[in-house]
TrEMBL record:
InterPro entries: AAA+_ATPase, ABC_transporter-like_ATP-bd, ABC_transporter-like_CS, ABC_transpr_MalK/UgpC-like, Mo/tungstate-bd_C_term_dom, P-loop_NTPase, Transp-assoc_OB_typ2. PANTHER family: MALTODEXTRIN IMPORT ATP-BINDING PROTEIN MSMX, TREHALOSE IMPORT ATP-BINDING PROTEIN SUGC. Keywords: ATP-binding, Cell membrane, Membrane, Nucleotide-binding, Translocase, Transport. It comes from Actinophytocola xinjiangensis. This is ABC transporter ATP-binding protein. The keyword Disulfide bond does not apply.
């Protein structure tokens, strides 16, 4: 199922509902052709509103949306292309399958509306069901399928009409953990095989990190960072992104604290730094000498939280709480003291406005990893 895979461009896109803050505030965002872009952020950040404006389900207050070389919505130019003429496939959180129709009838529904001939309909539906590996259920009804299987049918129905763009609004949130994992792999496979331009809305950072080629982090209707998943993780644009992406979140330490001042001694220059960040997996427990490029500090254990594959430890140094993650067992109890070390190369620096400082020390050294 080849796709023309257009670029999606949003310029100055704004959405106001008349009262309260803007739902989307002057958004400039380019989603390259064949990309899998995740709109990531907490509830109310504007990600679903953005997707609905791309789909044509919400009117813009201002700005322009271009799909490929075609303007589909522009307030300045007075252009609005209705949703059904935008060449897009939509999948939402609920599967929206007709319960009285078989899987085959559900998938071919859009083709019937378009008056596609019966022989062609059958071939297209067979191809879509095969792509989603659900062909064996063609004659079953939605009630006879699991949640993950129903979502596959929903995706097959979308693919059958051969959209240029796939718009997915938290399609996995109703699935249990095992099915979510299965469907993440399925969606990634689908993107690699079809080459569609995909826009995926989620509040789940793990979904964004595992599936996306680009992640657009949003807060209060404003784009915070657009980058590849690992860049968002390893070089967050500001303290919001640093805390939102990562579990446990990045430790953010005020430079006025004792541990913050100690960290600053390893920064060149340190004068503009208001906050120092370090990922929990980059805080190590040491029993002997620390590496030359690391600084050490004593910390009091608050809690040790085993997760099965790793141990998350909450410690206090002075009045500052820090989380560390270890893949080795941490033999300590609450109240005991641990010697911790942080490689200088794993420190992130942020200014008073929360923005990442240029030329900071976060070089991801081998020891920091």
């Amino acid at each position: 199922m080849a796709s023309t895979a257009p670029t999606i461009s949003l310029k100055g896109v704004t959405k106001s509902y008349g009262t309260g803050p803007l739902a989307v505030d002057n958004l400039d965002l380019v989603m390259p052709a064949r990309s899998f872009t995740c709109l990531l952020g907490p509830s109310g950040c504007g990600k679903t509103t953005t997707l609905r404006m791309i789909a044509g389900l919400e009117n813009l207050t201002d700005g322009t949306i271009t799909i490929g070389d075609r303007i589909v919505d522009s307030v300045p130019d007075g252009v609005f292309v209705p949703p059904e003429k935008r060449g897009m496939g939509l999948v939402f959180q609920n599967y929206a399958l007709w319960p009285h129709l078989t899987v085959r009838a559900n998938v071919e529904f859009g083709l019937r509306i378009r008056k596609v001939a019966a022989a062609e309909r059958r071939k297209v539906v067979d191809d879509a069901l095969a792509t989603m590996q659900i062909g064996w259920a063609a004659d079953r009804y939605p009630s006879q399928l699991s949640g993950g299987q129903q979502q596959r049918v929903s995706l097959a129905r979308m693919l059958a009409v051969k959209p240029e763009v796939l718009l997915l609004d938290e399609p996995l949130s109703n699935l249990d953990a095992r099915l979510r994992l299965e469907m993440r792999a399925e969606l990634k496979r689908l993107h690699e095989e079809t080459g569609h331009t995909v826009v995926f809305v989620t509040h789940d950072q793990l979904e964004a990190m595992t599936m996306a080629t680009h992640v657009a982090v949003m807060k209060d209707g404003v784009l915070q960072q657009l980058a590849a998943p690992l860049e968002v993780y390893h070089r967050p644009a500001n303290t919001f992104v640093a805390e939102f992406v990562g579990s446990p979140p990045m430790n953010l330490i005020d430079t006025t604290t004792a541990i913050g001042a100690q960290a600053c001694a390893y920064l060149r220059p340190a004068g503009d730094v208001a906050t120092v960040g370090v990922r929990p997996e980059h805080v190590r427990v040491v029993t002997g000498p620390a590496p030359d490029d690391a600084f050490t500090f004593d910390a009091t254990v608050k809690a040790v939280l085993p997760t099965g594959s790793s141990w998350t430890v909450s410690v206090l140094t002075g009045d500052t709480e820090i989380y560390l993650v270890s893949t080795e067992p941490v033999a300590a109890r609450g109240g005991e003291t641990l010697r911790c070390a942080v490689a200088a190369g794993s420190l992130h620096t942020f200014g008073k406005d929360g923005a990442r400082l240029a030329g900071d020390n976060a070089m991801e050294t081998e020891w920091a990893r």
